[in-house]
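# nightly structure sweep
# worker-07 picked up a monomer target from the shared queue
# config: single-sequence mode, recycle default, output format = structure tokens
# input follows
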Amino acid sequence: MQNQSTNIYRLTTLLFDGLLLMALFIAVGFWRFEDLRISNPEYYNYYLQLLVLTVVSWYSAGRWAGFFSYTSGLEQRNVTANLLRGAVAQLAILAIVVVGLKGYYYSRVFLVTYFVSLYSIALLYRLLLVHFLRVQMAKGKWQRRYLLSGQHATSDALRSLTELRPELGWKYDGPLEDATLDGVYEVICAHAPGTEGYDSANRLALEYGMRFRFLPDLGPQYAGQMFLESLEGIPMFSQRQEPLANWANAWLKRVFDLVLSLLVMVSLLSWLFPLLGMLLLLSGAGNPWFIQEREGLQGRPFKVLKFKTMNTAGKSNALQSWMRKTGVDEIPQLLNVLLGQMSLVGPRPHTSGDGVAYSKLVQSYRVRYWTKPGLTGLAQTRGLRGGGVSARKELLEMRIRADVYYIENWSLLLDLRILIETVLRTLFAPASLHAK
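# output follows
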């Protein structure tokens, strides 16, 4: 059974979106043209067609992108990502249809004003609605009540989670065996399939018309997610989700890398590269360039280009120290991004020696090899830069967890956020794994 918050979210977004689509279309149309029915009846019909296409494409794209759906634990960043994904899909549909209809008669001022206003208002009220629903569930409203049958480490973790975070919309009402079964419950079974406990819990759920769920024991150390796959009806659980394993996502990320890298290199680095190289020469650093082998996708080695920030004795002058502290020495790796060896955002590439050492310290280290290394990453936005033998182990573990989280939760919006935060941190708060 879905809790009431799910239905509230769906109905609100479906109804309010419809009103918003039409009311905003009328308001912007009147602002731009006054009354088209009088001033230009022919164009009035064209804009009526556009309104119908907009409404149909909005609901079609929304159903595909999932921005009418609410699930337990839904966060505002997921709402934003879903809406952006749906907006891109809708604009693609409209562009194809309008071009096919030779829609030169549509005002660009009208289109930009309408769609920017539409997406902004739709996002804002969704964020407010999610906040409202989570606050209400935290107060105990609209909870999905569940009973536990059996016990293991994962069922204990579930019970603790739902008791600590009622805003997720689940409420633990005790063990199945002690329940009076006088309400609407869901049974979550911690017994292994085929055991007497599992069969007994399943029979009780059927007898009282309760929904039945099976919770496998994932061990006391498990803190990730499981994703169900099926091979000809045989269920298999995978521990991690990989958005970039989808070719469409990988292609989108590659296009984003190419476009942004070229823009930065043409507008900024065309003069910054030679300037920094000249300053390094004048500071007595010698050859300003340094080539080093790093580990890339699937652990394959490749060469990266950097500004030279150390001499043969391992010492740096003032300029080189500043470049290392801020990460400016890594900027030439934009060339590696253009060559497809790296991405703008991803886990930072390590040398093979560091990779061997880190993999012994952090169990999930090699998950980083599942995607291309990046010029910057989620760990860097959290101030977790640097490394080497002197890196603090607990900070290194935080860095690897951030990298793994990025791989499991990639989105174009996350990439954009990381790039913006990297620039801000570089300017105002550079840090490293060696921080006190």
